[in-house]
UniProtKB/TrEMBL annotation, chains A, B:
<dbReference type="Pfam" id="PF00811">
    <property type="entry name" value="Ependymin"/>
</dbReference>
<dbReference type="GO" id="GO:0005576">
    <property type="term" value="C:extracellular region"/>
</dbReference>
<dbReference type="GO" id="GO:0005764">
    <property type="term" value="C:lysosome"/>
</dbReference>
<protein>
    <recommendedName>
        <fullName>Ependymin</fullName>
    </recommendedName>
</protein>
<feature type="signal peptide">
    <location>
        <begin position="1"/>
        <end position="19"/>
    </location>
</feature>
<comment type="similarity">
    <text>Belongs to the ependymin family.</text>
</comment>
<dbReference type="GO" id="GO:0005509">
    <property type="term" value="F:calcium ion binding"/>
</dbReference>
<dbReference type="GO" id="GO:0007160">
    <property type="term" value="P:cell-matrix adhesion"/>
</dbReference>
<keyword id="KW-0732">Signal</keyword>
<dbReference type="InterPro" id="IPR001299">
    <property type="entry name" value="Ependymin"/>
</dbReference>
Amino acid sequence: MHVPISLSVCFVLAATVVAQKPHPCKSPPLMVGRLSLIYPKGEMFVYERFTYDALGKRIRLRAQGVEHNHSFYEDLLMLFREGVVYQISYKNQTCTKKPMDMPFQPIEIPQDATLQSQIILGSSSGPGQGLLVNNWMGEIPEQKAKFYTTFTEFGCLPLSSLYTTDETGWILSSFFDILIGIDDPQDFIPPDFCDTTKPVDNELVVTDFFEALKNN
Amino acid sequence: MHVPISLSVCFVLAATVVAQKPHPCKSPPLMVGRLSLIYPKGEMFVYERFTYDALGKRIRLRAQGVEHNHSFYEDLLMLFREGVVYQISYKNQTCTKKPMDMPFQPIEIPQDATLQSQIILGSSSGPGQGLLVNNWMGEIPEQKAKFYTTFTEFGCLPLSSLYTTDETGWILSSFFDILIGIDDPQDFIPPDFCDTTKPVDNELVVTDFFEALKNN
């Protein structure tokens, strides 16, 4: 019986070793957090609070930033299933409803991404002193884009993403202060002063994220 | 007796609140780890393993990198107390001893740095999913330089440092895989094939880190 037992131990060990290699993963479907976005070619710097619901394909973004030395504030409710974005201003009690032609992009490591390295930010010498993360890279042929992204090993949480094309130059997104779950489900409900029944103006279709931020 | 007890509780609470504000700190004096260094203006990218001894003012660096599309490997033993740097090649069994006129710069947050923000990389929602860090900025008037640096809250370990002057442009150092302590004390002893008694050639004084790397 020794040989079968040893063999099965070997199989278990082999399975463990295979399992230890990081694999592309999906972030938790419900998250709140913060994000900074640096886009040098567009002379744009944005700091955002986000509420993210991958189940309902909904994102709420409260962004403040600078573009070409002009500062802006945007409060966006993006409902991808309905193909609608609301631009909300509590100060002015105004709300603009626009059609949105953008696919919902879940926060995840694409399946065809390549693991570059696994590293510890800080140290594993003491508790609370380090964070085990994986660095990935990949390409998006249809956008002629490359990306480099870092996610935590435990929890599959995003840390940073560097996206680069010849056209855009590099765009760096850095995530932090993430909590798993949604603290306020009302974030996804348009405020009372939004006329949700109003038909959208199809001449103002929002097709990318920067456009949504800039249309203020 | 209620009032004095309440007051003393208030003082204890106040002291705790004051103590909770992060203060500039020194990294542990003994560390090993890795470092990547990006210096776009010098067209230089370096990946290093380091052994760091702030007590003995000694650094061992094994660096591989690219400068102006030319790749290089350097093994440097920097003894700041003696003002000497050894350039070591095990492959060729050669060793060059050069004088070094550089102050030892301990890994620390300068006392006059300003706290920008305290953030969590990843999340505090689950164990092993996040890292509490502090972002600092400051100036070095004598170098007309600005710096932005991130250290862990617990352990005071370096994560990254962005140094910028008009002359150099920006230089980004990213630290990772740090262990507290020295795994091999022999890292600081020149190998047998180094002639430590040989006087140094004072015409080859090394005055900065990049010079030490480039003199190969």
